[in-house]
Each structure stands twice: as C-alpha cells, then as structure tokens.
Design a protein that fits this description.
The structure is a single chain. The protein is about 5% helix and about 45% strand. By secondary structure, the protein is mainly beta. Strands 13, 14, 15, 16, 17, 18, 19, 20 and 21 form a nine-stranded antiparallel β-sheet that branches. Strand 17 (about 225-230) and strand 18 (about 235-240) form a beta hairpin. The longest helix is centred in the N-terminal third of the chain and has 16 residues, at about 5-20. The radius of gyration is 23 Å and the shape is elongated. It binds copper (II) ion (CU). Copper (II) ion binds near residues 87, 89, 94 and 119.
C-alpha cells in the first residue's frame, strides 16, 4: 500500500484509539494483573496463556487465553476453544479435571477456564496441552509441551474411594488465608477413565482443620463442605485462628452418607488419610 493511502488510515486509527467508547484497542489492557505462562504459535495465530503466577503448578490453575491474528496483529474476539491436557507416563497417558473455555466476564479478547493438574514429574516435565479452536468456521488444533511445577503443599489429593472409584479433590480457596473464618472452596471430580473427569455432585466432605505443630489443636466454627449446584464446587467455613501450617483433615461421604475416604481425628488418630494442606 502506498504511503498516501496509509497516512489517512493512520490518522483515523489514532483518532478512534483516543475515543473512550472504543474498548477493544490497546488502551484497555485486558491481561492486567496476569503473567504470561507461554505463547504457542500455530498457523497464522499466536495463542497466549496467562495466570496470576505465570507458571502452571500442581492443583487448581485458573488460566486466561488470547488468540492473536499474526497478520493483523489483533486479538480474536469470537473464537470457540476447547483443550485437552495430557500427561505421558511410562506405561500410559492420562488427562486431568478441566473446565470448558468461555469468554472472561467483561472482556473482549480474553477467554478463561481451569485445569487441575493432579501430579507432575519432579523436573516439571510430562505434560502437554492440546488447544482446539475455531475462527470464522475454520478449525485449528495445536499441541505443545508445557511445564507443570510441583506446588509446595498438598493442594490436591488423588485417591481411591471405598466404592472403588478414583477421585481428585483440589483446593481452590482460600488463596490468601487470614486469621479469620475463611471461605473454603474445593473441586471434587471422579476419574471415569483416563480422559474423563466429571464433577461429583451432592457429596459431603467433613472438615477438621488441625495444627500438628501445636498439639494438633483445631479451631471453632468450621462447617463441612457442601455442594453448590450453581457453580459445581464445594464450600465451607474454614476457621484459622493463627498463622502457620494447617492440615485440613477431610472425610468424604456420598449422598447416602457412606464414608468413601478419610477418618475422624481423635486422640489415637492424629490425622485423616484424606487431607489438604495450607500454610500462611
Ligand atoms: Cu501422571
């Protein structure tokens, strides 16, 4: 294109980028507060993966994605996306619990979803991520190696229930615990097969937080985790009376109140075999 055509376009672009009602240009930074994890280049697109820490860790990961058109250098606003995380193990491969991907609330270019990595190798290797997406009726797919680092505490538990079903439990909240009654939020999934991990509904998870370093004392005003069918997560009041290391002892019960995993904490039994950890 000749310069005499380009200049008016540049002026028009400049004019419109200054108006406040045009919210899909560079003025609004839709990834503010997020750190880039990785970019994946595929065909004519660049996929950007973000979260708060800029890295994948074992446990619950809330992930933001953007797709850039490399020709126009602009972000796609009307794509549909899905994903498949996969861990390659010596004798088999498996996936993990994950959400669908949808447009982030109030954003034009950012899509959002979660993945719960239940395990990883000590050097963060083993996982790949396939992203399938459709833009203007054209389907694309790309698979890339990702790094998943081991989180320092047990924020996810993978276990066999007494019903011979394999479950995955993940701590989501509190992300920022304080000396208070905190809202506790967990996700509970069943391993239907190596690739499918549906949400488990309407179970109950008894909660007994303890400080093993301080005579195994508990705290007052805790409640058990119950299922919320509005967002498919489990919620409880978690009372933390001091800073330090807490073991969140749990006991999973199905809808008939049969105990599937975990034991009561007593003088003789200092911890449940089902627990999550928290330190602050
Ligand atoms: Cu694995």
């Amino acid at each position: 294109m000749k310069l005499k055509y380009l200049l008016p376009i540049a002026f028009i672009a400049l004019f419109f980028s200054c108006s406040t009602d045009n919210d899909d240009d560079a003025i609004v930074n839709e990834t503010e507060g997020l750190e880039l994890i990785q970019t994946i280049i595929n065909d004519n697109q660049t996929i950007e993966l973000y979260n708060e820490k800029g890295m994948f860790e074992t446990g619950y990961n809330l992930i933001s994605l953007r797709i850039k058109n490399n020709t126009t250098d602009s972000y796609i606003e009307d794509a549909t996306l899905s994903w498949m995380p996969m861990m390659q193990m010596p004798t088999m491969e498996h996936s993990c619990p994950k959400s669908t991907i949808s447009k982030a609330l109030g954003k034009d270019t950012v899509y959002e979803g979660f993945i719960i990595y239940q395990m990883t190798n000590t050097d963060a290797s083993g996982w790949s991520l396939t992203i399938n997406y459709t833009i203007d009726g054209t389907d694309y797919s790309v698979t890339e190696t990702i790094s998943v680092f081991q989180y320092e505490n047990q924020n996810t538990a993978s276990f066999m229930g007494s019903d011979d079903t394999k479950y995955i439990l993940a701590l989501i909240e509190p992300k920022d615990p304080s000396i208070a009654v905190n809202e506790m939020k967990v996700g509970l999934f069943k391993m239907e097969n190596m690739m499918t991990f549906p949400v488990v509904e309407d179970y109950t998870i008894a909660l007994d937080p303890r400080m093993p370093g301080m005579g195994n004392h508990t705290s007052p005003n805790n409640t058990d985790l119950t299922y919320n069918n509005a967002d498919n997560f489990y919620y409880a009041d978690l009372s933390l009376t001091m800073t330090g290391y807490w073991k969140l002892n749990l006991k999973l019960m199905n809808a008939n109140d049969d105990v599937l995993k975990g034991e009561d904490v007593t003088d003789e039994n200092e911890a449940s075999s089902l627990y999550l950890e928290l330190e602050f």
